[in-house]
């Protein structure tokens, strides 16, 4: 598979906060790559850094940042805004960031297309909007075109955002927590929709979530972020079958799974909270919460291979968990 | 001679709450029926999990049970005593809340120890030394240090703030705690810490919980009984194990099918519900679930189903009537 999006050694800093610290990931065409992690670990900032939408005052550095082989680092603002909404589109965590409350759904959807495809007539743009609204499962799409965002339920708004992101047939879709605010039944409907669109259109999707259940069900590949770093990355089956990083293992143990964890047993938990990392911090950022922390964890932490396309960042040997389990048996 | 059996910790009878919502200066107000004829009992020491979609009336039910809202009809009894006739202080000794957003429910200008002391102070007759002693004991019980007791809410993490809210709820040693989405704002690692704490406190202090959550996996883990709400009514209630093993109401089945467990390879299920999202200001006639129900038939839009008793609870669906009629009469 050819990588459509390549990110390597990404750093983002806001003053004295190192929000992203050397993150690397790739997304191939037709692939869903999930970026998972707890609040504040740098998922949204990573996405915004790719889209060139970081807040003013942010400092971005990267060893590589490329879309379809083209280096994004040197692109002018104009070139970047030509790409955005056209070949790469984003669905934001907060729907009202991409929907303008004072314009109708129809005028916002057609505007995106006509900005990037100047020759398009209004009538053709409206046809495309109706087609896409229907495609994302909105009944009576023509009626929705005349409505304002606040007249839509959360689930409908999320569908409108997806439809809007697809107006120019993007190759890459970045979806930041697209279903977090929705009811579980609606969430399932929207995730199915995204999976279907991806199959039909060959989209590359970078899906950001904090929900390991979503990851397991939709991702081809997973990257686990902690305190600004990707601490483990693997094909989905491998990550869930043989998680290697102590943080990944801790996260999985925290999730109640019906029928798996007995109700009178406590859930696994990780003590403490995600720390704030100042620039210049060295060593493993998880060490004050890790049961396996050792003195060498305060020095540079190696990236280790655990299997095909499976890497993790830790001082422990790749087979530590299996050996620990064997020792207990 | 046997003593009378203890009353249920919580009993609600035909509880109903209607909100009148004004839509504009001249439009007539609309009626929103948030809770519509809800009855159940929770035995002492039990945990009733309440699940359902946004807007189905879970928080309204919680506030009615806490006495923070007046019912339009029906009544609430806590340990056999009618809430409506109880004074505030007596009520506070019996039942306490823990809400979703600890930040919104904690006074930002008070220190943690003063926040936890508030319910004791409000009782008006607890000596100062005893207040100090019980606050210190409670902070330790929920895993907060003495030093954290001196801080202000803004200086704590989300999980620590939720511990403060729990300490405040328990400092009067109530019998019943109503938890409304107590971990929904927290990360999973912190959620696990808080759920473990709530389980431990229930066991050690013999508490009864009403536990509201939109996360079914969480409810499965903590609840002994589960009530499924849809547009203001409980459409199914059963012991937790029975409900998760064999859901009966079509809506319960759809909800369970939507739970995305971390098991790769299963994909995202088709829950089979249409797009007609429920609107509490416009409750459909007949079975209120019929516009979305994959099994709806001719009777559903015209006749409201009655609750049919099951082995451990009730189900409100016409299919159950038919099933009950087909079953031979019980001995
Ligand atoms: N504009 C900003 N100015 C300063 N700090 C910021 C800014 N945006 C983000 N940060 C910080 O960067 C870190 C990463 O934030 P980010 O929004 O990427 O987290 P996240 O993983 O998306 O979390 P969540 O799951 O809560 O959305 C946080 O510590 C956050 O406070
Ligand atoms: N004070 C109020 N005035 C008017 N309407 C209200 C009021 N409180 C609640 N409602 C309405 O009653 C219905 C039930 O609301 P409630 O907050 O109980 O739902 P919920 O199940 O807790 O939802 P969520 O999962 O989103 O918290 C909603 O339609 C809501 O808009
Ligand atoms: S590097 Fe050390 S502290 Fe970090 S996860 Fe590995 S064992 Fe734990
Ligand atoms: S009564 Fe009819 S519409 Fe309602 S849940 Fe049962 S089958 Fe579905
Ligand atoms: Mg985010
Ligand atoms: Mg609520």
TrEMBL record, chain A:
Tell me which domain of life the UniProt entry assigns to the organism this sequence originates from: Bacteria
Q: Which InterPro entries match?
A: AAA+_ATPase (IPR003593), ABC_Ni/Peptide_Import (IPR050388), ABC_transporter-like_ATP-bd (IPR003439), Oligopep_ABC_C (IPR013563), P-loop_NTPase (IPR027417)
The main location class comes to: membrane
Q: Which PROSITE patterns match?
A: ABC_TRANSPORTER_2 (PS50893)
Compartments annotated for it: namely: Cell inner membrane
Identify the keywords attached in UniProt to this record, alphabetized. ATP-binding, Cell membrane, Membrane, Nucleotide-binding, Transport
Record keyword Membrane present: yes
Q: Which Pfam families match?
A: ABC_tran, oligo_HPY
Q: Name one GO molecular function term.
A: ATP binding
Question: Which residues are in the ABC transporter domain?
Answer: 5-252
Which SUPFAM superfamilies does the UniProt record give?
A: P-loop containing nucleoside triphosphate hydrolases (SSF52540)
- Please give, as recorded in its UniProt entry, the membrane topology of this protein: Peripheral membrane protein
> Has keyword Glycoprotein?
no
Against NCBIfam families, the record matches this protein to: oligo_HPY
For this chain, the family text in UniProt reads: Belongs to the ABC transporter superfamily.
What protein am I looking at? ABC transporter ATP-binding protein
Taxonomic source organism: Caldovatus aquaticus
From TrEMBL, chain B:
Against PROSITE patterns, the record matches this protein to:
ABC_TRANSPORTER_1 (PS00211), ABC_TRANSPORTER_2 (PS50893)
Q: Which domain of life is it from?
A: Bacteria
Spell out the molecular function terms from Gene Ontology.
Answer: ATP binding; ligase activity
Stored CDD domains = ABC_NikE_OppD_transporters (cd03257)
Q: Which of UniProt's keywords are assigned here?
A: ATP-binding, Ligase, Nucleotide-binding, Transport
Q: How does it sit in the membrane?
A: Peripheral membrane protein
State where the protein is found.
Cell inner membrane
Where in the numbering of this chain does the ABC transporter domain appear? 10-256
Q: What's the family? A: Belongs to the ABC transporter superfamily.
Record-given protein name: ATP-binding cassette domain-containing protein
Q: What is the lineage of its organism?
A: Bacteria, Pseudomonadati, Pseudomonadota, Alphaproteobacteria, Acetobacterales
């Amino acid at each position: 598979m050819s990588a459509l999006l390549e990110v390597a050694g990404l750093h983002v800093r806001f003053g004295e906060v190192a929000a992203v610290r050397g993150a690397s990931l790739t997304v191939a065409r037709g692939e869903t790559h999930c970026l998972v992690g707890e609040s504040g670990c740098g998922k949204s900032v990573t996405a915004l850094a790719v889209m060139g939408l970081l807040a003013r005052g942010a400092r971005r550095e990267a060893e590589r940042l490329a879309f379809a082989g083209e280096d994004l680092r040197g692109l002018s603002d104009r070139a970047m805004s030509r790409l955005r909404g056209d070949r790469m589109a984003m669905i934001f965590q907060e729907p009202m960031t991409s929907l303008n409350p004072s314009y109708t759904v129809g005028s916002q959807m057609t505007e995106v297309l006509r900005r990037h495809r100047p020759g398009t007539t209004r009538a053709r743009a409206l046809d495309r909007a109706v087609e896409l609204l229907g495609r994302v499962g909105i009944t009576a799409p023509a009626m929705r075109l005349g409505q304002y965002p606040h007249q839509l339920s959360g689930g409908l708004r999320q569908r409108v955002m997806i439809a809007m992101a697809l107006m120019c047939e993007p190759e890459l879709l970045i979806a930041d927590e697209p279903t977090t605010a929705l009811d579980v039944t609606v969430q399932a409907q929207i995730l199915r929709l995204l999976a279907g669109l991806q199959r039909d259109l060959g989209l590359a999707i970078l899906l950001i979530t904090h929900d390991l259940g979503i990851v397991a069900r939709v991702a081809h590949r997973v990257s686990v972020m902690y305190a600004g770093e990707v601490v483990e990355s693997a094909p989905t089956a491998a990550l869930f079958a043989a998680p290697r990083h102590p943080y990944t293992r801790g996260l999985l143990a925290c999730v109640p799974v019906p029928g798996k964890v007995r109700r009178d047993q406590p859930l696994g938990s990780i003590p403490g909270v995600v720390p704030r990392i100042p620039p210049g911090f060295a060593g493993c950022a998880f060490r004050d919460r890790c049961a396996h922390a050792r003195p060498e964890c305060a020095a540079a932490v190696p990236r280790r291979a655990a299997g095909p396309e499976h890497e993790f960042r830790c001082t422990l040997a790749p087979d530590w968990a299996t050996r620990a389990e064997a020792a207990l048996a | 001679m046997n003593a009378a059996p203890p009353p249920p910790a919580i009993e609600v009878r035909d509880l109903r709450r209607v909100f009148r919502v004004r839509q504009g200066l001249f439009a007539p107000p609309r009626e929103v029926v948030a809770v519509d004829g809800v009855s159940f009992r929770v035995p002492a020491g039990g945990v009733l999990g309440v699940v359902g979609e946004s807007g189905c009336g879970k928080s309204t039910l919680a506030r009615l049970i806490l006495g923070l809202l007046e019912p339009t009809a029906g009544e609430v009894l806590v340990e056999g005593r009618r809430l409506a006739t109880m004074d505030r202080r007596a009520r506070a000794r019996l039942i306490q809340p823990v809400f979703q957003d600890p930040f919104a429910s904690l006074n930002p200008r008070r220190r943690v120890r003063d926040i936890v002391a508030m319910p004791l102070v409000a009782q008006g007759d607890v000596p100062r030394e005893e207040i100090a002693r019980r606050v210190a004991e409670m902070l330790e019980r929920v895993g907060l240090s003495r030093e954290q007791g001196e801080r202000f809410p803004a200086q704590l993490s989300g999980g620590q703030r939720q511990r403060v809210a729990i300490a405040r709820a328990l400092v009067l040693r109530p019998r019943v705690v109503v938890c409304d989405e107590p971990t929904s704002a927290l990360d999973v690692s912190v959620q696990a810490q808080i759920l473990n704490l709530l389980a431990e406190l229930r066991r050690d202090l013999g508490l009864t919980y009403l536990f509201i959550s939109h996360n079914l996996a969480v409810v499965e883990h903590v609840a002994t009984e589960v009530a499924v709400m849809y547009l203001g009514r409980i459409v199914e209630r059963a012991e937790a194990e029975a409900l998760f093993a064999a859901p009966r109401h079509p809506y319960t089945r759809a909800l369970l099918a939507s739970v995305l467990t971390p098991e790769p390879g299963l994909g995202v299920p088709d829950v089979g519900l249409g797009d007609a999202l429920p609107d509490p200001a416009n409750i459909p006639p007949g079975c209120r679930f019929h516009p979305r129900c994959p099994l709806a038939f001719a009777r559903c839009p015209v006749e409201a189903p009655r609750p049919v008793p099951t082995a451990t609870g009730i189900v409100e669906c016409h299919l159950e009537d038919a099933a009950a009629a087909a079953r031979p009469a019980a001995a």
